[in-house]
Structures are given as structure tokens and as C-alpha cells.
Amino acid sequence: MSQAGIAGKIVVTGRLKLLSPLLICSGMMEAGSSIDMQLLKDKSGVPFIPGTSLAGVLRSFAEEYAPDAYEGLFGSEKTAGKGTQQSAVCLRDVVLEQTEITVRDGVTIDPVTGTALQHHKFDFEAVERGAEGDFRMVITLRNVHFDDVHVLQPELQRLIDGLLQLLANGIQLGGRTAIGLGRAQVRDLVVDRYDFTSREDAAAWLAPDGPLPAASHYTVCAGGAEPRSEDFDVEATFALAGSLIVRDYFPADAELGADKKKIAAVSKKSGRDYLIPGSSLKGVMRHRAAYILQQLGRDSGLVEHMMGPEPKRDEEAEQKKRKSRLSVDEVYIRPEAVVAAEQSRNRIDRFTGGTIDTVLFTTKPLWSKGDESVVSIHFAIRRAQEHEAGLGLCLLKDLWLGRLTVGGEKSIGRGVLRGLKARIKYQGETYEWEAGKEAAEETVMMLDSFVKALAGWNGMEDEK
Q1: Rounded Cα gap, residues 285 and 109, in angstroms
Q2: CA distances from 417 to 15, 164, 245, 284, 290 (A)
Q3: Per-residue model confidence as pLDDT tens digits over 333-342
Q4: Any idea what DSSP says for residue 235?
Q5: Distance (Å, rounded) from C-alpha 28 to C-alpha 93?
Q6: Which of 177, 366, 173 is nearest to 265 (CA)?
Q7: Which of 145, 155, 273, 424 has its CA at a distance of 20 to 30 angstroms from the CA of residue 368?
Q8: 265-266 and 355-364: which strand pairing?
Q9: Higher pLDDT, 6 or 238
């Protein structure tokens, strides 16, 4: 029996839905456009997710999840003494429906001066969350994949099950995933496995109007898979201690205040929800992490080791790129939980102490309606060592106590949070606590050990 003979097919279908905005760049810039990064679109101008992007994400997961089996599914490159193996996975492009294209902006902040770096402002297009499209993946099973006629190799079966659960639980696609973009989930996930040694399955596959359901026909539901035990995973909820504003520089419509004049700054939105972009959160966390290490007298190189290199202010030599291991999700604030209220302000002449003529402006920050949870923050450090977990815990503490503010206009007290609940998962354990309640003694002891590991860390030489 030829090892290359086709023994069956696995067909996976469902509806892929975006849970956060998606950025997949076309690599081209339309004439006359001021947008630096534009979305990949088909000939009709509809955004889509190429099968190559999906295959890359799944292959990357497979390589880490089953290093001894992933080449059997995703193929291999030619190496000395070995030939190539074709990929068994075929993924269709996902053409997105119900799309809304938004424009996001980004800027690099100088860690010393706290101001924007010159020539580091950029704009990009993104498909707003909520868009969805048909997902289809076909896995061609060959004789080489089986231990006997009907039984897949155990490692290969485990990998396929892991991929299906990953798709049902959620994946991240495209660019800027470390700041929460590209989260997607395949819903209504249906799996049909066709065994070509079965006459009924072979006939179902060869049906003239397309494959019919196979004898092995089942659905896969989201299982809420736990983070990897070596990941430091944090979820926390906060109330607003005052007001909050993340300025929107691309509002769809100019808002007018009570005096019928244009409002100078409104809060950024995603759909109907107010938004704190992951880039804003990660930026303040990066700056605070550097400050914490400086105060402890520890090597600030840990920041770049965790979060990737930062652009040099002097625009010198090309840096070695490194993917950030710290990822932050975007924060969506329900409009029912807050009030967007106008606030008019004057600019004061610093010499005379009087107001400057014609410099009266109005902003529209958010205010909490009560003491309930308004902001939910999720961040994670992949493959975190204990001293890195200690740094992550210090960042959570500063957010919890209102020492680390988010958004704009911080100099007048905006962006202060008050911690309500927190949950940390790390090394197979879960640690939880709530404001106003005493945490369990073992939780306090373990979290304290992470901070002590940071305090006793000897610097980047320990990472080599």
C-alpha cells in the first residue's frame, strides 16, 4: 500500500467572527491616500483574511503544541538527507461580511520626555469587530498518517483535536496582536471526517452537489481552555475613580456642544462601546515597568526582553526585531455604565495668571455612573519567569491603587482607576482577591515570592 495514498478527508466549517479589530496590510498605498497601512481587500474592495494568514497562525501553534507531529500535518522543508513533505492542510480565504472599516492611529512615545517622537506618527485601517465570514479547512489524510487502516497516529490525532479546540476558543490574526488586535473565533464549528475505506463516506464525499455529512459528524464548542501554565495571565476589573478620556482623532461626525460649537476632544469608540486601545495600555505599562526597574536598581533591559525593542530616538542602526511576550487586550466600556459629559476649560496665561482670549475649549470625558465595574483589563506575559511575573504583579498593583493612569489629560487627574477584583493564573495555580476582603494567606505568600524574585534578580546575564 502506497504511503502517499489518500485514505480520507477531514472537513472543518464554521463562521469566523472578529472579536477585536483586524489589521492585515496590503503592503501597498493607494494614490492620494494619507493612510500609512491599508487593509488587504479583494477586487471588489471587500476585506478578507487570506488562507496563508490562517495557516501561519495554526502552524505556529502546532509547532509549539506538538513539535514531533506538526510536520506530518503542515509539511516540511527540504533538509540534508530528507525530502520535502507536502502540507495536508488546505484553508480557504475568509471573505468578511458586515464590515466596517475604521482608521486607527499610533505614535511612539519618548520614554525620557514622555512626548511623541518626531516622524513616529502613523495611521492604519482596521476591520471593526463584529465582521464575520465563512471558514473552511480541509485536511487530507494519507496512509502515512495512520498506524493501521482506521487509526490515526496518536500524536497527529492529539494535534488535530488541539487545533479544533483552538479555533473554537479563539485565535489572533494579522498585525499588532500584542495590543489586542485580530482576536477571532470560529463559531458553529462542524467537523466531518470521511473514511475512504467506507463506501458510504466515499459516496458522501463524491456527491454531485458537494460533500454530504460523513458518518463521523460532530460539533466543537468553546471550552475555555486554560492559559499555558508558564504564562502569567491577569484579568482584573476596575471602577473609574474620576474621569477618563482617550481622544479620538478620527471621529465619524463632529460633535457639537451645548453652545453649538465643535467639541475639541471626544472619547474613542469601537462600535457603540467606548474604547481604551491596547496600544494605550501597553504604552503606559511599558513606561511604568522601566520606572519600577529603575527604582529597584535592576537592569532595564528586561523591558525590551519582555516587550520587544523600542525605536531609538536618534534613528540609528536597524534593530534586531523581537516579538513582544507581553500582550494586552483592548478594553471596551459599555455606554450604559458611563456618562459622557461636556467640560469646558480655559487656557491660562502663565505670566499674567489671566485667561487667554479665544482659547476656550470643550472636551467630553467619561464619568462612571456608580461604583460598579467599568473597566476590565486582561494582559499576559508568555513564558514568564518568576521575576517577570513579579514585574507583572507590580504593574497590576499600580493600576489597582491608581498610581498608573491611562488615557489622556492625566495632568488634570483623568484616567485614575480603582481596583475591584483580580485573578492571576500562573504555573498551574489561580490566585484571586477582591477589594475590601482579605486575600487567602497562601495567595499573599505566593505573590510575595514573585516580587522577591524580581528584587533578587541579578540582571540580563541571568537570561543568557
Answers
A1: 12
A2: 37, 38, 12, 13, 20
A3: 999 999 988 8
A4: E
A5: 19
A6: 366
A7: 424
A8: parallel
A9: 238
Residue 68 has phi, psi (to 5 degrees) of: -90, -5
248 touches 267 (CB < 8 A): yes
CA 116 from chain centre, in angstroms, equals 24
Alpha-carbon Rg for the chain, nearest whole angstrom, is 26
Q: Grid coordinates 466600556 are at which residue?
A: 333
Q: What is the mean pLDDT of the chain?
A: 85
pTM summary value: 0.85
Other beta carbons less than 10 A from residue 221's beta carbon: 11
> CA-based angle 183:185:188, to the nearest 5?
170
Contact 406, 240 (CB under 8 A): no
Q: Indicate the helix (H) or strand (E) that contains 117.
A: strand 116-127
Backbone angles phi, psi at 309, to 5 degrees: -70, 155
Q: Distance between CA atoms of 42 and 39, rounded to whole angstroms?
A: 10
Note whether 255 and 265 are within 8 A (CB): no
Q: Are strands 94-95 and 48-49 parallel, antiparallel or unpaired?
A: antiparallel
Spatial contact of 285 and 379, defined as CB atoms under 8 Å apart: yes
Q: Which three cell numbers stand for residue 449?
A: 515570592
Q: In what order do the strands lie in the sheet with 265-266?
A: 265-266, 355-364, 343-348
Q: What is the rounded CA–CA span in Å between residue 421 and residue 73?
A: 42
Q: What is the mean pLDDT of residues 198-213?
A: 90
Rounded to 5 degrees, what angle do the CA atoms 88, 91, 92 make?
145
Residue 420 vs residue 356, higher pLDDT: 420
Burial of 336 (0-12, 13-18, 19+ CB in 10 A): exposed
Query: For residue 313, with 0-12 CB atoms within 10 Å meaning exposed, 13-18 middle and 19 or more buried, which class applies?
Result: middle
The SS3 call for residue 69 is coil
Write b or e for each residue in 111-126: b if 16 or more Cβ atoms lie within 10 A of its Cβ, otherwise e.
Answer: beeeeebeeeeebbbb
Cβ(197)–Cβ(222) below 8 Å:
no
Helix or strand or coil: residue 67? coil
